[in-house]
Automatic annotation (TrEMBL):
The active site is at residue 321. It holds the Pfam family EPSP_synthase. Its EC number is 2.5.1.19. Monomer. It is found in: Cytoplasm. This is 3-phosphoshikimate 1-carboxyvinyltransferase. It catalyses: 3-phosphoshikimate + phosphoenolpyruvate = 5-O-(1-carboxyvinyl)-3-phosphoshikimate + phosphate. Residues 15-425 form the Enolpyruvate transferase domain. GO terms for biological process: amino acid biosynthetic process; aromatic amino acid family biosynthetic process; chorismate biosynthetic process. Belongs to the EPSP synthase family.
Length: 441
């Protein structure tokens, strides 16, 4: 499949008819990168079926290889590229990890490096150096691991000394749930495991912490939440596991929001019966905008009338990842839409609140920046530039608005390569009502 380039703006296609499409999506970033990391620390080889193949997943694969894991491709079922076979090895130092803009890599991998013997340097994209990392650096130091860093952010070097004792630790995960997940994921390999407590003004993205605990438990690790903001992971082996990665339900957001924007029906294949992915909240979120949905034989069917989009007030602290899509719908709504609880998304790929306010304002909309969210008031929109700011979810938010507003020019649709490189082709296929197999497109 050919992927978009970074050099030319992408004119978001407008919808000329109600949707009637079946969509298949590639694997979940959050599940893929957890499965890769735990497989690299496991007690035998693991195979991932239908793993995500994207920039963030490649960064995790390369990072784990640098830290000593063997990772190779194996023939898969064809639909989403090859499977991955992960052969764990002793954690080694002496390398460099380029985290790109991947929060999972920059938060999770330093704790793996700490298990090794020798220095590992970490850096990333220019914007990665602005993302919150202080709790990674401070936690490592509190655990007795040396970190060379001018500032508590990228770039830095972790000086592993062959192991981590673990024990009791308190951190402030207000800026990112990934600080909690990072510690829990490596903790089975700490001598004493970890007894972790969060103390801070808020705890975002709790479903992602539940996903981490579930990923550990499915590999035989004794891991549990012991209170609202406390967790315990016992030391012990991580079992190897062959598993199929679920489709990325967060990347389903723009495709399902498209039904609200345009009307009609989208059928999403591979909807899990039970999942820890935060995208499971989409049916309820889209219901607030008038959509109906049902699950039938492993598919999610979302339908909407295509009539005026109602207003809504939503606290999205648990699902910040979905907020750019919901804000895009807000820009098309006929009554005010207020999304709060997403202050932490200022530390995502870009300051998402600022980016959405600026982009919507540039199209003539009325978007008001709140300390921890956005309020959008109804206003007619006109075509114009839409900055992606290296952010896959800001790019796809522009695509949602462009369904109804001709001439929305996303400056860098290739930003979607972070988690869904096939986005432009899948979007076009949805609009054409074609059933696109991403491997063949
Ligand atoms: O652990 C994970 O896989 C993620 C956790 C969340 O991070 P924050 O808690 O920083 O929002 C989410 O937004 C991110 O896309 C992925
Ligand atoms: C915040 C996100 O990514 P990251 O894993 O880089 O934090 C995201 O995908 O919305």
């Amino acid at each position: 499949m050919s992927h978009a380039d970074h050099s030319r703006p992408w004119t978001a296609p407008t919808a000329s008819a109600r949707l009637d499409a079946r969509v298949q999506l590639p694997g979940s970033k959050s599940l893929t990168n957890r499965a890769l990391l735990l497989a690299a620390l496991a007690d035998g080889p693991s195979t991932l079926h239908r793993p995500l193949r994207s920039r963030d997943a490649t960064i995790m694969v390369e990072g784990l290889r640098t830290l000593g894991a063997g990772i190779r491709e194996a023939p898969g079922d064809g639909a989403f590229g090859p499977d991955l076979v992960i052969e764990p090895g002793p954690v080694v130092g002496g390398g460099h990890v380029d985290c790109g803009l991947a929060g999972t890599a920059m938060r999770f991998l330093p704790f793996v490096a700490a298990l090794g013997d020798g220095p590992v340097s970490f850096d990333g994209d220019p914007h990665a150096r602005l993302r919150p990392m202080d709790q990674v650096v401070e936690a490592l130091r509190a655990l007795g691991v040396r970190v060379d860093a001018d500032e508590p952010r990228l770039p830095f070097t972790v000086l592993g000394a062959g192991g981590v004792r673990g024990g009791e630790l308190t951190i402030d995960a207000s800026a990112s749930s990934q600080f909690v997940s990072a510690l829990l994921l490596a903790a089975p390999r700490f001598d004493e495991g970890i007894t972790l407590r969060h103390e801070g003004e808020r705890l975002p993205s709790i479903p992602h912490i539940e996903m981490t605990l579930d990923a550990l438990r499915r590999r035989g690790v004794d891991a549990a939440a012991t209170g609202e903001a406390t967790w315990r992971v016992e030391p012990g082996p991580i079992a190897a596991l062959d598993e199929q990665i679920e489709p990325d339900l967060s990347n389903a957001a723009p495709f399902l929001a498209a039904v609200v924007a345009v009307g009609g029906r989208v059928v999403l294949d591979g909807w899990p019966l039970q999942t820890t992915q935060v995208g499971r909240m989409l049916p309820e979120l889209l219901h607030a905008f008038g959509a109906t949905s049902r699950v039938s034989r492993g598919t999610l069917i979302v339908e909407a009338s295509g009539g005026p989009i109602p207003g809504a007030t939503l606290d999205m602290h648990a699902a910040g990842e979905l907020s750019p899509t919901i804000v895009a719908l807000g820009a098309l709504a006929t009554a005010p839409v207020e999304v709060t609880g997403i202050g932490h998304t200022r530390g995502h790929e870009t300051d998402r609140i600022r980016a959405l306010v600026d982009d919507i304002t540039a199209l003539g909309g009325t978007a008001i920046e709140l300390p921890d969210g956005i309020r959008i008031e109804p206003a007619p929109l006109a075509g114009g530039p839409w900055g992606a700011y290296d952010d896959h979810r800001i790019a796809t938010a522009g695509a949602v608005i462009g369904l109804r507003v001709p001439g929305v020019e996303v400056d860098d649709i290739a930003a979607t390569a972070k988690t869904i490189p096939e986005f432009p082709e899948l979007w076009a296929a949805m609009l054409a009502g074609r059933d696109l197999d991403p491997a063949q497109g």
